Amino acid sequence: MPINVPRALPARPILEKENIFIMESDRATTQDIRPLNLLLLNLMPEKERTETQLLRLLSNSPLQVNVDFIHTATYESKNVTKSHLEKFYQTFDAIKTRYYDGMIITGAPVEHLDFEDVEYWKEMVEIMNWSKDHVTSTLHICWGAQAALYHHYGIDKQPRDKKISGIFMHQRIEATNKLMRGINDEFLAPHSRKTDAIYQYIKHHPDLLMLDDSKEAGPLLIASKDERHVMITGHIEYDADTLNEEFIRDLNKGIKVDAPTNYFPNNNPNEDPKNRWRSLAYLLFSNWLNYYVYQETPFKWD
């Protein structure tokens, strides 16, 4: 998929080195096709890294995609420069009259808080309500998935006895669901969180489908039956070394944590971890863009 991104975006040279198809804005405007317009609500602290990870996964399709970035107006991130936000990001007020074919809501390091205690929760609720009639399909990641389950379907989260971190095996349940096309019967996926959605409520909710399950991690993929919402409880967008960096960060903070499960070769933190979920991530994003967004979105929004 050719991704149309600003020339100065820090993710651009990284993606170009990986031979990701990056399209110039002037070329994009001359192509006689209807591009997909996506909105990315980036709640992660390291915004530049998250931009690169997600843009990489949006590249694996023949469709042309335009991406707009927004951040919360009610909370100012401390891990990104103000100039980066001013140059590449907008706030919700600037885009709320527009319509988007798809939206991605990222995770956020606020899962220890009740939803209503999150500083920008009211803004999140406004955005999620707006998405009901302004976005064809929304992809929610980790805390973003828990927020969507809570707000749209009344399913709360609960704390784990200890943080789950590592790579876990999942078994496919809904083999005929469009999101699962081409995905193996068993697959590995990374998780990193301290809370879980209450899975028995998901399993029995009339509007939701659990697409897979894992004894250790619970389901990775949950979809609404109307295809408007996809919830990913893990972090399939992560790079190979991201869990390791989180592990080292926690140790440096004096937090007692176990090494990520099934992550380091030979369970040795001195060996470089391998990305064993890359094909899953590319295929899932491609399926979402094709079947839940491109095939369903109107050619022209009213």
From TrEMBL:
Active site: 142 (acyl-thioester intermediate), 235 (proton acceptor), 237
Cellular component aspect of the GO annotation: cytoplasm
EC number(s) per entry: 2.3.1.31
Keywords: Acyltransferase, Amino-acid biosynthesis, Cytoplasm, Methionine biosynthesis, Transferase
Site residues by UniProt (Important for acyl-CoA specificity): 111
Residues holding substrate: 163, 192, 249
Chief location of this protein within or outside the cell: cytoplasm
Coiled-coil portions: none
GO biological processes: L-methionine biosynthetic process from homoserine via O-succinyl-L-homoserine and cystathionine
Feature type site, description Important for substrate specificity: 192
Reactions listed under catalytic activity: L-homoserine + acetyl-CoA = O-acetyl-L-homoserine + CoA
Pathway where this protein functions: Amino-acid biosynthesis; L-methionine biosynthesis via de novo pathway; O-acetyl-L-homoserine from L-homoserine: step 1/1
UniProt-annotated location(s): Cytoplasm
InterPro entries: Class_I_gatase-like, HST_MetA, MetA_family
Entry GO MF terms: homoserine O-acetyltransferase activity; homoserine O-succinyltransferase activity
Family of this protein: Belongs to the MetA family.
Role summary: Transfers an acetyl group from acetyl-CoA to L-homoserine, forming acetyl-L-homoserine.
PANTHER family with a match to the protein in the record: HOMOSERINE O-SUCCINYLTRANSFERASE (PTHR20919)
Name of the protein: Homoserine O-acetyltransferase
Organism: Halolactibacillus halophilus
Name of encoding gene: metAA
